[in-house]
Amino acid sequence: MISESSSFVKGVVLGGAFCMLVTLLGHIKVGHGTKAHHHEHHHIQAPNKEDVLNLSEGERMELSKSIRVYCIILVKPKDLGHWAAAKETWSKHCDKAEFYSSENVKVFDSVALNTNDMWVMMRKAYKITYERYKDEFNWFFLAYPTTFAIIENLKYFLLKKDPLQPFYIGHTVKSGDLEYVDVMGGIVLSIESLRRLSRVLEDSDKCPEQ
Fold first, then answer.
1. How far apart are the C-alpha atoms of 87 and 111, rounded to whole Å?
2. What is the C-alpha separation between 140 and 127, in angstroms, rounded?
3. How does it sit in the membrane (predicted)?
4. Among 33-37, 52-56, 70-74, which stretch is predicted with the lowest mean pLDDT?
5. By percentage, how much of the chain surpasses pLDDT 90?
6. Is 69 exposed, middle or buried (0-12, 13-18, 19+ CB in 10 A)?
7. pTM of the predicted model, to two decimals?
8. Cβ proximity of 46 and 85 under 8 Å
9. What domains sit in the chain, N to C, each tagged with a CATH number?
């Protein structure tokens, strides 16, 4: 448990430093006469070092034991470079990670979905995930191989969230009146959200494949 807690602390601190760097870069003006644009929306900030160090040992143990994240990574053969990178880096920090591919690929193990349509791939991946792992994990992270995630930061953020509530995290975008979560940054679903989504996906009237 000590090594897991240490890894968690290091991950969050590194993540916080990275976010700080991005924030600083975001305030640099490019060229002469460039003005910064004021915006009203709020950003979720990475936890600071003090917050992490002040976690009790009980909270750290709860983090490593009770918050179990299953990672779903959607891939295609053309993504082999990013696939290899994700396999060797951040996906190792998931409690379990599996790659769901559009077709069989000999180079890496994956769950073949036999479709090139990303929407259908997502549907099938969620359905398989729920059927296989609904009793084993309480949080589910779906991403592309081009995504980079710090799972320790995610677990810290989820520490006081109830997975039995229909909860999700993601970058929300709007298209007309439709508001949805963009998968490019990854989508996190609680087990209750996945349960409800699976029920809707089974209903072709509410959620047709095409």
1. 14
2. 12
3. Single-pass type II membrane protein
4. 33-37
5. 45
6. buried
7. 0.71
8. no
9. 1-66 (no CATH), 68-210 (3.90.550.50)
